[in-house]
Each structure stands twice: as structure tokens, then as C-alpha cells.
Write a structure and sequence with these properties.
Rossmann fold, alpha/beta, seven-stranded mixed sheet, about 375 residues
């Protein structure tokens, strides 16, 4: 486990991690199988979201392997949520996996599709956290000058309280912009603030977005649909992994013990995330050991991740679209029609960031490798 540096804030995802999270892959997956078996015995009415991606392939293999090892375990209901921007490679793979394991994977479609959701609410930008923060800023029309007020205040707790009173109902947006928590304490190094993406505040000031930003397309095309389907089940199983970052790497609100792979929601429903502490290296070990074959999106197109095609939350979005283009050109055209404003704005942001980094390089002499990866992806 990487220890936090002095004065570095770490969320409970890191501080409350279970012992098996640091096991080697063989022992880690043994522990995960035991967890899956135990929870399926305790909560037999379970539903599993299957995306057709690599994590889902490993998750399904694990579940069905457990059911083969312990035949008394109940069957799991599998569902695939088709947002309207799914690759043919993914949809074909869903059918293949259903046949391989002898299970039904029900395809669910949203009432509000991607085109309708983005036109009404806006396009995602950089991450779900960033999208939600900037959406709140746009809608509530909070001036960015509050950041200067907060930074220049000697008593930051008092300034945070005054801002709350001045802008009622805007606490999360204030925290996001000022890079602080509800008590007014600076939290510049966490993912829930605007400068979790380098220079983002300065960029927004100099180049304000000319389109609406929001991640509500995911809410309407996936989350709300999933909740509707899952509400009648005792336990929901998903393939989320902490190493994917973003919202998956922070504790869930309203869930007891949400830093573990198993938790209980406020409504009394249980959530099982067996792969939560599985690393990329663990995944590769499992794939090679058990001969897992991913969809053509990985094996033929050469993609690293899948999901809603071209989602701007991925820094590889436009690069991935070029991998897809030779095989599914019409889908790529559709993605640009839906998310084009966000793609172009992100390119502006990356160009701005590189100029700033070049200037900073004269001072500290180094450039962040992740930033270079992002530039190469544009």
C-alpha cells in the first residue's frame, strides 16, 4: 500500500482497505471467490450489471465459476444496458457470453437516449466529478471571484460560512471551486475539486465553455434505468474497480462500509463489488490464467476500455474513435455529433495545459507523464 505523504489527505478508500486488497493475484482471487459464495448464499436474489467490457468478463467468469464449484448457489440475473451508443462488437460479445455460460443477459434500453439527454442537459467533460461541478457552476451562475475571496481570506472557515449564506443551496459547488470541504478546510489534492485537473480553474476563467456541461446523460441512460431494474433485487453486483479512478475511487454517500467490496445502502439493498481492489496487473493475470477472451473491441480494434462509445469522460475518447472507425464508421460519426463540443473543448484545455506546463518546466524541470499521455490521445 502506498503511504500518504506528510499533510496529504487520503480518503477512506485507502485508509480502510481490507487485508486481501494487498494479496498477490492468486490469493486475492481465492478471497474474492469466498466473498462471492458467501454473499450469494446470504442474498440469493441477486442481479449483475454486465457491460461487455473486460471487467465484466472477469466478473461473470468468477460468478459462474463459483456456481460451478458450489452448485447450490442460486442463478444470477444478468442485464446489459444499451445506451444507444454501443459498439456492434460489444453487442455481439454480449450474445457470445450468454451462449458460453448458458445464461440469459437481458438487454435494457433507456427511455431517454444519449442524443436526447445531451441536448437537454449537456455533454460530459473530463470526468463525472468535473462535469457535475461545472454544471453546478453554470446553472447557479456563481462568480469565479469567490475563489479569490476564499484564497485571500485569513479565516477560511469563516469565509466558507459566509459564502454558504451568500449562495444558499450551492455548498458542493462552492467546495468544488474553492478546493475545500464543508468546514472550509483546504482540500486541494482530492478528486472532488476543480483543480484535480491541472490548471482547470485558470482555463475556465480564460476560455469559458460555450456549451452546457453535464454528466446527466449517464444518469438517464444508465443509472436511472439500472435503479429501476435493480430495485426488486436483494443484492446488486457490479464490476467496479477502484483503479478505474473518478467516482469509483471515492466512498459512496449513503452506504455503510462503502470502501469495501460489500456494502448496504440506505434503502437496505446490498451492493457487491467483487473486483473493487483488483488491479490492472491482477486482471491480466486472471485473463492469462483462465484464457479469458475479451470482445473484438479489445482483441481486434485494440481498445483499452469500452463503454458508451466515445464518452468524453475518457481522455482516450477521440483516439479510441479512430480505432473504431475502420470497423464501425457510422457509430464514430454519431459519437462526434453527440459529443463534438466536448471533444473540441478538451483539446483546447490540453493545449492550454501544455503551454502552462512548458512555462512551469523552466521552474521545476519536469512534466507529468499522465498529461503527456492525454496530449497524445487528442
Amino acid at each position: 500500500m502506498n503511504r500518504p505523504k506528510a499533510n496529504e489527505y487520503r480518503s477512506r478508500v485507502y485508509t480502510d482497505r481490507p487485508a486481501y486488497a494487498d494479496y498477490d493475484a492468486p490469493q486475492k482471487f481465492d478471497a474474492i471467490r469466498s466473498i462471492v459464495m458467501q454473499r450469494l448464499r446470504e442474498h440469493p436474489k441477486a442481479i449483475c450489471s454486465y457491460s461487455g467490457g473486460a471487467d465484466s468478463d472477469i466478473l461473470m467468469h468468477l460468478i459462474e465459476q463459483c456456481r460451478e464449484m458450489l452448485p447450490t448457489l442460486p442463478p444470477v440475473k444478468y442485464v446489459f444496458f444499451n445506451t444507444g451508443l454501443e459498439m456492434k462488437a460489444t453487442k455481439d460479445h454480449v450474445k457470445e457470453m450468454a451462449e458460453k455460460y448458458g445464461v440469459e443477459i437481458e438487454t435494457i434500453r433507456p427511455k431517454v437516449n444519449i442524443v436526447q439527454a445531451t441536448r437537454k442537459y449537456g455533454q460530459p467533460f473530463v470526468s463525472k466529478i468535473m462535469s457535475a461541478g461545472l454544471e453546478g457552476w453554470q446553472k447557479k451562475e456563481i462568480p469565479l471571484t469567490i475563489v479569490d475571496e476564499y484564497n485571500n481570506a485569513e479565516d477560511k472557515a469563516a469565509k466558507r460560512k459566509e459564502l454558504k449564506e451568500r449562495f444558499p443551496g450551492c455548498e458542493s459547488t462552492i467546495n468544488f471551486l474553492c478546493c475545500c470541504n464543508g468546514a472550509g478546510e483546504p482540500r486541494p489534492n482530492i478528486q472532488l475539486v476543480i483543480n484535480s485537473s491541472k490548471y482547470m480553474l485558470d482555463f475556465i476563467r480564460e476560455c469559458p465553455p460555450e456549451f452546457q456541461i453535464s454528466a446527466k446523460c449517464c444518469d438517464y441512460c444508465k443509472k436511472q434505468v439500472a435503479h429501476s431494474v435493480q430495485k426488486d433485487y436483494e443484492m446488486v453486483i457490479t464490476g467496479e474497480r477502484r483503479d478505474e479512478g473518478g467516482m469509483r475511487s471515492v466512498p459512496r454517500q449513503g452506504e455503510a462500509n462503502s470502501t469495501m467490496c460489500f456494502s448496504e445502502t440506505a434503502s437496505g439493498q446490498f451492493r457487491l463489488r467483487p473486483l473493487y481492489y483488483v488491479s490492472d496487473d491482477d486482471k491480466e493475470w486472471y485473463k492469462q490464467t483462465w484464457g479469458i477472451k475479451y470482445s473484438d473491441a479489445y482483441e481486434v480494434y485494440g481498445m483499452k476500455r469500452t463503454g458508451c462509445c466515445g464518452c468524453p469522460i475518457s481522455y482516450r475518447a477521440t483516439e479510441d474513435l479512430e480505432l473504431i472507425r475502420p470497423h464501425e464508421p457510422n457509430l464514430v460519426k454519431a459519437a462526434w455529433n453527440v459529443f463534438g463540443d466536448s471533444y473540441r473543448y478538451r483539446q483546447k484545455y490540453v493545449e492550454y495545459k501544455m503551454k502552462r506546463m512548458a512555462a512551469d518546466k523552466q521552474i521545476d524541470g519536469q512534466i507529468d507523464m499522465f498529461d503527456l499521455m492525454e496530449v497524445n490521445a487528442i
